[in-house]
Amino acid sequence: MSNGDLLHVVTNDNISDRRKLFGRALIWGTAALTLIVAVLQTMQVTGRAEFGFTDWRPTLYAFCTWTVALCWGQVLINGEHGKRTLFVLPAAIFVAALTIFPLLFGLVIAFSDWNLSSPTGRQFNGLDNIRQMWTDPFYWNALWNMVLYSLAILVEYAIAFGLALLLNAQIRARKFFRVAFLLPLMLSPVAVSWMIGKSMMEARYGPLARLARFFGVENPSFFSSPEIARATIMIMDAWTYIPFMMIMILAGLQAIPKELNEAAKVDGANGWRNFWEVTFPLMLPVSITAILIRIIFKLKLADIVINVTSGGPGGATDTVTSFIFREYRERSNVGYGTLLAFVYLVIIVIAMTLLMKLADRWTRPRT
Amino acid sequence: MTASTQIFRDSEADRRHRAKWWTSRIAIYGVLILWTIICLFPIYWTITTSFKMAPNVMKGNMIPWVDYQPAWLGWRSLGLSPDTIGEESTVRAEFMKRFMNSAIISVTSSALAVALGSLAAYGLSRFNYRFGFMKNSDISFFFLSQLILPPVVLALPFLVLYRELALLDTRVGLILLYTLSVLPIVIWIMRDQFGSIPTELEEAALVDGLSIWGAFATIILPIALPGMVAAFILSLVLTWNEYFFAALLTSTYANTLPVMVASQTGSQGISWWSMAALSFAAILPLIVIGVVLEKYIIKGMAAGAVK
Q1: Which of B120, B149, B244 sits opposite A88 (nearest CB)?
Q2: What is the pLDDT of residue B56?
Q3: Are A77 and A26 contacting, i.e. CB atoms less than 8 angstroms apart?
Q4: How far apart are CA A155 and CA A314, in angstroms?
Q5: pTM for the structure as a whole
Q6: pLDDT value of position A134
Q7: CB-based contacts of B257: which residues, under 8 Å, 6+ apart?
Q8: Nearest neighbour of B165 by CB, restricted to A57, A178, A199
Q9: What are the tens digits of pLDDT across the range B156-206?
Q10: How close B58 comes to chain A (CA, Å)?
Q11: Of B28, B165, B304, which has the smallest distance from its Cβ to A289's Cβ?
Q12: Which end of chain A is less congested by CB atoms within 10 angstroms, N or C?
């Protein structure tokens, strides 16, 4: 069904020309109003005139009026079809207004030197930010860390798969276990970073440190050497997000018809072969969806790092987000931070597109 | 006939089978219980620590009443212990303010996201659109691709924009951003939900004289309600826990709970028991939601997994 609606509605709209005209006038009128207000405000900012605006709120209000007029105008002009557009239009305008405009604006910021606390304001500095980025070892280090953090997802996936298999097995008190396994996902990462990172892993009194000492580690410290610190962050993040993958895989497992596994058993497959040759291939699409979504979430990882190690030791645990966060907090340089974020976005988009292409090839049934 | 001879007995093979069954049972429950401990111990530790005093912390006591006597120390510092609850307390006022901020922001933005997202998902599942060059699949992709957009890309432009718009440190500003960040997830869940509802239902309603919006509101919404609840709860969890935007865009007035927790973690003077009490108070609402509404959360997360 490529053309024609899934839901066929026969409508006979008799829309008078005056109504159409009114609708068009409404949309264009409010658009003009927005434009005029914006131009007036720009003139004030550039110092050509003085209207007494204190902030850009008037433009915002004018823009909101225009969006309302646009939605209403759709119904006025197109009648029944306009009402259908009204389902998608508000969300589309909302997302477009909140992403496209800031992204374009960010593009301008990215090529400028703008220290929010300095009085000089924004100054274009061309490619200086890129040059600075090129020689910034901490940024490259943060990017490399993201690769390592993403690789940890494979381990998370294996654990989550195992847990999902257990939950799918014949067990008692399944609901209890499911709730217990789900709980880490509900907790705020900031609270988790105190609960686990700052108190349970505290070198002197923390229970995990005591446990490590019990097993014969001399001076347990979870954040002193770069490798261990990185692994600790990985574990804490895994602790929070394993339930997420587990639930997705569990849903996939429950959708597999029982007959398939029974048929394999009749054919003489033992548990291990049954898993590898029936369950696992059937779970491949779900697994790949779960892993891709998990990668997307992982790429946003910041709160734990900011709160537990703030990037240390020596940037070993930095994620790109936490690095930019500190870059802004310490130097309040908006321009450089934005450029770093944009480069990150470009890398992510390329990487995710490649991954999705690959995933598509893997999941396509082999003929 | 002697009673001592047993006619039916398990053969050797059967007995081996039994033993194998038992070991597998023990292994399964062993792993399950181990993971339960891994999941629940941090929460248990936080609760018990909030009732400890300095010596208990240093000695590493674990079990209340057995190896230490619980005290209200941590909760008293928050102004939430029985003897301080009636009195004025600046810390408690601060905490309640943050709590209310978190509650208002997360509930409003989740509701907004569910409203906008359900409408869009319904439209996309029923009609063919053409916005310029964009068709249905492009519009869907446009919405879902927002998921990939890392928050850090939007953060600094928004910081500057909000400063100009005087939206910095306001609840409205955060609500807008949070709605944006959970909208793709809501659309994902709801698209799945509406896709599973047959179009014949609306067709019947339309024949009976309802308008499209009327059919949507009276026929489809009640059926899709479980999905909407799932999307709402999931959004609630994500927005309640959000830290990055809140830390950047709020300072004194519209701070949320995670920002408060984080600012306390940073300061050196703060003691474990009050920190534990604060952390626990911050996670308690979500623990309750998780236990009570577990079904919906699982439903929401499973929505995208199985096609």
Answers
A1: B120
A2: 77
A3: no
A4: 26
A5: 0.89
A6: 87
A7: A188, B98, B99, B101, B102, B240, B282
A8: A57
A9: 889 888 888 888 888 999 999 999 999 999 998 898 888 888 888 888 888
A10: 6
A11: B304
A12: C
Report d(CA A299, CA A305) in Å as an integer: 12
Scanning B12-41 for CB atoms below 8 A from A yields: 28-29, 31-32, 35-36, 38-41
Model confidence band, residue B54 (pLDDT cutoffs 50, 70, 90): confident
A175 is written with which tokens? 């609901």
Q: How do the domains of chain A map onto residue ranges?
A: 17-110, 131-363
Length of chain A: 367
Arch. (CATH architecture) of A131-363: Orthogonal Bundle (1.10)
Does residue B99 contact residue B255 with C-beta atoms inside 8 Å? no
Instruction: HSE, CB side, 13 Å, CA atoms: give it for residue A80.
Output: 13
Distances (CA, A) of B164 to A32, A54, B168, B178: 22, 9, 8, 19
In sequence order, what are the residues at sequence separation of 6 or more whose Cβ sits closer than 8 angstroms to the Cβ of residue A157? A245, A287, A290, A291, A294
pLDDT tens for each residue of A90-101: 999 999 889 888
**Closest B-chain CA to A115:** B160
- HEC profile for chain B? CCCCCCCCCCCHHHHHHHHHHHHHHHHHHHHHHHHHHHHHHHHHHHHHHCCCCHHHHHHCCCCECCCECCCCHHHHHHCCCCCCCCCCCHHHHHHHHHHHHHHHHHHHHHHHHHHHHHHHHHHHHHCCCCECCECHHHHHHHHHHHHCCCHHHHHHHHHHHHHHHCCCCCHHHHHHHHHHHHHHHHHHHHHHHHHCCCCHHHHHHHHCCCCHHHHHHHHHHHHHHHHHHHHHHHHHHHHHHCCHHHHHHCCCCCCCHHHHHHHHHHCCCCCHHHHHHHHHHHHHHHHHHHHHCHHHHHHHHHCCCCC
Query: Which of chain A's residues have a Cβ under 8 Å away from the Cβ of B138?
Result: none
Q: Which of B146, B156, B295 to mutate to test the interface with A (most CBs of A within 10 A)?
A: B156
Q: Which amino acid is at A220?
A: P
Tell me the chain A residues in contact with residue B35 when contact means C-beta distances shorter than 8 Å: 163, 181
Listed as own residue / partner, the contacts of B206-214 with beta carbons closer than 8 Å and 24 or more positions apart are: B206/A9, B211/A83, B212/A9, B212/A80, B212/A83, B212/A84, B213/A83, B213/A86
3-class SS of residue A123:
strand
- Tell me the CB-side half-sphere exposure of residue A280, using CA atoms within 13 A: 11
By residue count, chain B amounts to 307
pLDDT tens-place string over residues A33-62: 999 988 888 888 777 777 777 788 888 899
DSSP 8-class letter at A367: -
Q: Is the separation of the CB atoms in A129 and A339 below 8 Å?
A: yes
Q: In CATH, what number does B90-302 get?
A: 1.10.3720.10
Tell me the C-alpha distance between B9 and B248, whole Å. Answer: 73
pLDDT bracket for residue B101 (50, 70, 90) = very high
pLDDT for B238-256, tens place per residue? 999 999 899 888 888 888 8
Using only the alpha carbons of chain B, give its radius of gyration.
Answer: 27
How does B43-54 read in b/e, with b if 16+ C-beta sit within 10 Å?
Answer: bebbbbbbbbbe
> pLDDT band at residue A345, thresholds of 50, 70 and 90?
very high
Surface of B (240-299) touching A: CB under 8 A: 240-241, 243-244, 247-248, 257-259, 261-262, 265, 272, 275-276, 279-280, 282-283, 286-287, 289-291, 294, 297-298
Average of per-residue pLDDT across A106-111: 86
Beta bridge partners of A333: A115
Task: Select from A191, A243, A244 the Cβ nearest to the Cβ of B279.
Answer: A191
